[in-house]
Amino acid sequence: MLAVPKPAPPVTAATVVEFYHAGFDHYFITAAPAEISDLDTGVHQGWARTGYRFSVIKPGSTYPGTSPVCRFYLPPINGNSHFYSASPTECADVHRRFPTFDLESSAVMHVALPDPETGACPAGWAPVYRVWNARADNNHRYMTDKSIRDEMVAAGGIAEGYGPNAVVLCGLQ
């Protein structure tokens, strides 16, 4: 596993905030202050904060050994949703396999990658899980709470990631 130490100043952390849209039964995460403000103020109606959040390295800031996170927009025909990955291989594969997905950014934030075999995060980093809803209206939820991940899987979602716990990326502790 790549040893990635926990960042020390002057690296700037950002908070990823989770939102939920009850009408769509979709989740969305963002670390972008403008998007957070737009969702909080109703510019994009129907979204509400869930209270869940995790920390990452702020977009535009880097740290040795971390990976940028790509973000794709899935148009309405594919679910009207977003997909995130910290794996450069997965980002390239999604771009190739799903040409209708819009690559909004190749670096919306930076995180550490889990060990591909064990799913373990480096010291100072916390696991983030991804669950796909397995429905025609594709949606993925990203969370740090394994019990929530387990509830979503029990309800029919599919855990995606590395190792036995299916860790998809590692956020700051």
Description:
The protein is built from three helices and twelve strands; from the N terminus they run ββαββββαββββαββ. The mean pLDDT is 93. By secondary structure, the protein is of the alpha+beta class. The relative contact order is 0.21. The strands form four sheets. Strands 9, 10, 11 and 12 form a four-stranded antiparallel beta sheet that branches. A three-stranded antiparallel beta sheet has the order 2-1-3, with helices on one face. A three-stranded antiparallel beta sheet has the order 6-5-7. It has one domain (13-172). It starts with 12 loop residues before the first strand and ends with a strand.
In short:
16% of the residues lie in helices and 37% in strands.
- Summed up, the domain count is 1
The count of helical stretches stands at 3
Structural class: alpha+beta
Helical residue percent? 10-25%
Alpha-carbon distance between the termini? 18 Å
Largest sheet at a glance? 4 strands, antiparallel
Which labels suit this protein?
173 residues; alpha+beta; four-stranded antiparallel β-sheet; three-stranded antiparallel β-sheet; 3 helices; 12 strands; 16% helix; 37% strand; globular
Task: Present the secondary structure layout.
Layout lengths: L12 E9 L4 E5 L2 H8 L6 E11 L9 E2 L1 E5 L6 E5 L2 H10 L4 E4 L4 E2 L13 E8 L7 E4 L2 H9 L3 E3 L6 E6 L1
Antiparallel strand pairs: 1-2, 1-3, 4-8, 5-6, 5-7, 9-10, 9-11, 9-12
